[in-house]
Write a structure and sequence with these properties.
- One of its GO terms (molecular function) is DNA-binding transcription factor activity.
- This is Transcriptional regulator, AraC family.
- It comes from Arcticibacter svalbardensis MN12-7.
- Keywords: DNA-binding, Transcription, Transcription regulation.
- The protein has about 300 residues and is α+β, with helices and mostly antiparallel strands.
- The protein has two domains: about 15-185, Regulatory protein AraC (Jelly Rolls), CATH 2.60.120.280; about 195-295, Homeodomain-like (Arc Repressor Mutant, subunit A), CATH 1.10.10.
- Helices cover about 40% and strands about 20% of the residues.
- It is built from eleven helices and ten strands.
- The strands form two sheets. The chain has a six-stranded antiparallel β-sheet. A four-stranded antiparallel β-sheet has the order 3-8-5-6, with no helix packed on it.
- Helix 6 packs across helix 7.
Amino acid sequence: MAKKMKIRDGFEGEKVIYIPEKVLKDAKEKSPELFHIYLTQIGYFPKAAFHYRAREKGCTENILIYCIQGKGHCILDNKRHEVNANQFVLLPATNKYISYWADDEDPWTIYWLHFASDQIDHVNNSLNIQITKPPVQIPLNENAISTWQNIYQTLEMGYSHENLISASFSLFYLLATFLFPERHVHNNADNSSDIITKTIQNMRNKLNIKLTVEEMATQHRLSVSHFSNLFRKTTGMSPIDYFIHLKMQKACQLLYLDRTRIKAIAMQVGYDNPYYFSRLFKNYIGISPNGYRQRSKNIG
């Protein structure tokens, strides 16, 4: 009999963001009072056939898995559970064995995230998050899905300090929709665009080329000085620093999800010289591209 395929990620249509440790460390050092609980990873796996994760030594972070379609299975505290549509599992940080996987016949579609705290045990005790708890049935959680999408879109716009704070605050609300679902009403927020949002969207669409501040300012018929001041006031960074920041974020995603050569990844984010790209990556992320790729094998 052929051995069953088991994969961690790589599903068609998946979305994954892993926030680098250095980025989180810098954010916590800058505003420790705002990161009592913080997001470390966020993802979406549609119809995740052959998805399987086994954690022999548990996980140092909490893991939330919300199944919206299909089904999966998990082993918690040496007990096996089935996870069906409109059920969620909230796994506390633990050193015990845990595993979870998609059903063979009807693989699950899941939204998931990892979150941490410097006092994670106290957080879990306060919220009664225990490894002995089985999957929980809830009505379709539109609030959580909407909040998840907002967090993901915010982080896609870059790891600025403001974006990380926004994701951290939104995480509280997202968790509340699962823990206290009856207390939350769906809120349709106004997503009107402004100059800075349009600029960042344009940056994200052109990560493989070079952009100048002059080109960005001209797009909005503003002077370079006025545009730069406006951008820095809104994001806390200069336009070019923010653009590089987005390039490094994209490089992190490519290193995590792909096995393409470093030179090819450098080209995809607009750098002809892979050595210059590697130095820049280490300066922003705190580790070399090869080191980041090696470490990413142990996350997710």
